[in-house]
Design brief:
- This protein is an alpha/beta fold.
- The chain has three domains: about 170 residues, FAD/NAD(P)-binding domain (3-Layer(bba) Sandwich), CATH 3.50.50; about 100 residues; about 90 residues, Polyamine Oxidase, Chain A, domain 2.
- About 30% of the residues lie in helices and about 20% in strands.
- The strands form five sheets. It has a seven-stranded mixed β-sheet.
- It is globular and about 65 Å long.
């Protein structure tokens, strides 16, 4: 540690305050603790995890995730954190993506384990039974064109949907592939998302590496996985975690530097602070450092419909439903209970005019249409959970508004999936943001070192074909 830092903290290692116990704050605390930096983490709720959280439900007799979260093979930092913290056993790896077409036909889409990327996608594309051969070829060409698109190629800042229509993608292909896939990955309508955001999904999650599109599905409730197991591991690493501690303000000197964290009337001194809360909360804590929430920095809603039948009805681990209101169906795992499944609908603003009873009826009908066992099963419980700002809306121009981890205040840093990570609002984006903030803290401490896990290596043929 530099002599200046040692003098500033009277010869002891600086204690860093992390405000927020979501994945970004947990990742920041983990990265700093592993490198010997004392950390105190403040979380307003009883349990850490943020939006990757669970609730107690009488129908399940235990914890149920508010919304199903999944990672992909390209999420190198999230997966590394899980491995490091001993959570890898709670993630199931699925190489096969199940698509259910408008006519109910099922397609088991599995990338090749032998062909080099991006040719490994050929079996996946050709397994989509609801497309003709011509549509499959056009879809493959569209993926390559999108992956080759660069930021300066579309100065008009069109949406992904407009770009796809302008580059020869038929309406059926857009509605039955691009819409469900991109909206699930980005959490926003393709009529609003930017072309660079869509390109990242295609280039990194599909074309770059044979393992990039693998799904990693939690087998335990997120509240237990992150709020209990990850928090306990952090405690063993020396992180002090204060739950039920809502941070109401930061104590800053006349120059703006952080001196402490205020929880009501109590102020705890700290050497530096990482604000790792959603952007609206961050704007209240540090209004001079966070852009106002406007059309550039806005949220997108995600709705989860939880269903309990009197028997197990979903015979697939997951399924992408195309041409329907329901987008993803996940079979119940762990403590969710017998007969449980969850339907996830991204970009759900104005869904069926806000008619929740109509939404429930529609989703149940679609589940029964797709899964024969559900037709004779009795629905015994249901719950609809909507987070109106579940993810940052990655619209054209949003990257300009996303702030970096380091701010103009030397000892005040930002984290959260809404910050400038180069990723959409995902668990990977959250972990990357926390690790970027930790890198900035280490540099401030005079101990610069990389924290981020590298991306999956891009295959040579993929680099040649996409111009990467």
């Amino acid at each position: 540690m530099s002599s200046a830092v040692e003098h500033r903290h009277a010869g002891s290692a600086p204690r860093i305050a992390v405000v927020g116990g979501g994945l970004s704050g947990l990742a920041a605390a983990a990265a700093l603790a592993e490198r010997g930096i004392p950390v105190t983490l403040f979380e307003a709720r009883r349990r850490c995890g943020g939006r990757a959280a669970s609730f107690e439900d009488p129908a399940a007799g235990g914890l149920v995730d508010a919304c199903q979260h999944v990672a992909m093979g390209c999420c190198t930092n999230f997966l590394d954190l899980c491995r490091t913290a001993g959570l890898a056993d709670a993630l199931r790896r699925d190489r096969t993506l199940w698509f259910v077409g408008p006519d109910g036909s099922r397609a088991a889409c599995t990338p090749s384990a032998r062909l080099p990327a991006p040719l490994h996608l050929a079996p996946l594309l050709f397994a989509l039974r609801h497309f003709s051969l011509v549509e499959k070829v056009v879809l493959g060409i569209g993926m390559m064109r999108l992956a080759r698109c660069r930021d300066g190629d579309d100065p008009a800042g069109r949406s992904a949907a407009a770009w796809l229509r302008g580059h020869g993608q038929p309406r059926r292909v857009v509605e039955l592939f691009w819409r469900p896939v991109l909206e699930s990955a980005l959490g926003e309508s393709i009529d609003l998302v930017s072309v660079p955001a869509a390109r990242k999904v295609v280039a990194d999650a599909f074309l770059a590496h044979r393992d990039a599109a693998d799904l990693y599905v939690p087998l335990e409730p997120l509240g237990g996985l992150f709020g209990v197991r990850l928090a306990a591991w952090l405690g063993r690493c020396g992180v002090e975690i204060r739950t039920g501690a809502a941070v109401t303000g930061l104590d800053r000197d006349p120059a703006g530097a952080v001196r402490g964290v205020s929880c009501g009337r109590d102020t705890l001194p700290c050497a530096a602070a990482i604000v790792a809360v959603p952007w609206r909360q961050a704007a209240r804590l540090v209004p001079d450092l966070v852009p106002p929430a406007d059309e550039r920095l806005a949220g997108s809603p995600i709705t989860a419909v939880h269903l309990w039948f009197d028997r197990d009805v979903v015979d697939l681990p997951h399924a992408v439903l195309v041409g329907r209101v329901s987008q993803w169906v996940f079979r119940g795992e762990g403590s969710a209970g017998r007969g449980y499944c969850q339907v996830v609908i991204s970009a759900s603003r104005g869904l069926l005019g806000g008619d929740r009873d109509g939404l429930l009826d529609t989703v149940v009908d679609e589940v029964r249409d797709v899964f024969p066992a559900a037709r004779s099963a009795r629905l015994v419980g249901s719950r609809i959970v909507t987070d109106p700002t579940a993810v940052l809306s990655v619209r054209p121009g949003v990257e300009v508004a996303r702030p970096a981890a380091a701010t103009r205040v030397p000892n005040l840093f930002l984290a959260g999936d809404w910050t400038a990570t180069g990723w959409p609002s995902t668990m990977e984006g959250a972990v990357r943001s926390g690790r970027r903030a930790a890198e900035a803290v280490l540099e401030w401490c005079g101990r610069p070192q990389p924290v981020l896990t590298p991306d999956l290596p891009r295959a040579l043929l993929a680099r040649l074909l996409t111009g990467a």
